[in-house]
Design goal:
The chain has 3 helices and 4 strands; from the N terminus they run ααββαββ. The chain is mostly helical and about 130 residues long. It has a single domain, classed as Non-ribosomal Peptide Synthetase Peptidyl Carrier Protein, Chain A (Orthogonal Bundle), CATH 1.10.1200. Strands 1-2 form a two-stranded antiparallel ribbon. A two-stranded antiparallel sheet has the order 3-4. Helix 2 crosses helix 3. The radius of gyration is 28 Å and the shape is elongated. The mean pLDDT is about 80.
Length: about 130
């Protein structure tokens, strides 16, 4: 029981719960954007008023592929927004922080051994380094 208590109080569960709530709210915004703005804009060029009414009838079965098209467009929109507003800025920030920290060593231009940045002579081949 103490393991569960430790897991719960570490913040992982709370972070996950917040992410799910925000993701659900964000999903409803994207669904509305796709259904109310994007789909009518796309259908204006194709002549269809709504994708959700698209269907194919085979025998007595109706395959409602319009709702699937709406779902695919919604998924692509969510994926694009998450990538461009979360992943890309985070990666840029992480790379910038890593560049600031940098390494404390460099390669010798003669023997390619790893030497301290402040060194003026290589400890392995005794070459003068700038």
């Amino acid at each position: 029981m103490s393991g569960f208590k430790k897991f719960f109080t570490q913040g992982n569960v709370i972070d996950l719960a917040v992410a799910v709530v925000i993701g659900t709210a964000f999903n409803s915004i994207v669904q509305s954007f796709v259904a109310d703005l994007l789909t009518p804009l796309i259908s204006a060029f194709g002549g269809l008023p709504d994708f959700s009414s698209l269907k194919v009838t085979v025998g007595r079965s109706n395959f409602m592929y319009g709702n699937f098209v709406n779902a695919v467009v919604s998924f692509l929109m969510v994926a694009a927004v998450v990538y461009f507003l979360v992943v890309k800025p985070y990666t840029r920030l992480r790379d910038r922080a890593a560049a600031k920290i940098g390494s404390k060593t460099r390669d010798c231009p003669e023997c390619l051994s790893e030497i301290p940045k402040a060194a003026s002579r290589c400890a392995f081949c005794s070459a003068q380094v700038a």
